[in-house]
Amino acid sequence: MQDKVTFEYAIIRLVPKVEREEFFNIGVILFSKRKKFLNIKYHINPNKLKSLAPDLELATLNAYLNAWKIICEGKSSAGKIGELEISDRFRWLAACRSTIIQSSKTHPGLCENPEMELESIFEKYVL
Predict the structure, then answer these.
(1) CA nearest 111: which of 12, 25, 39?
(2) CA 2/CA 103 separation, integer angstroms
(3) How far apart are CA 116 and CA 120, in angstroms?
(4) How far, CA to CA in Å, does 69 sit from each of 55, 66, 73, 110?
């Protein structure tokens, strides 16, 4: 049995019309300092998108979320944000925004395996 480590996560939401404050969950971002883990998992249900925001393009939204993935990985193509420490990248990604892609407040937890925890939270709150 492995030791449990702390982690933090935020739910990623799509807010098609910011002024209406309606949203649906599209992903999860999870960070564990001790495991040096930062990753995102996302999926935009095309049927929900079409019914709630027919004017938004799925490919554009996926490209935006893929940029978040690149930031998580700390790739040079992420620019200055990708060069930040892993904890700072998480804070930047989970920061409050007034755009159509937003994140919830962060939530803490304990886990043995951050990757498995990310999958579990994703299945529970997004799928």
Answers:
(1) 39
(2) 30
(3) 6
(4) 24, 5, 6, 23
Rounded to two decimals, what is the model's pTM? 0.93
pLDDT at 2: 72
Report pLDDT digits (tens) over 51-61.
989 999 999 99
Dihedral angle over CA of 62, 36, 83, 28, nearest 10? 20
pLDDT at 98 over 90: no
Q: Over 70: is that where the pLDDT of 34 sits?
A: yes
According to DSSP, the β-strands at 5-14 and 107-111 are antiparallel
Count CB-CB contacts under 10 A for residue 23: 19
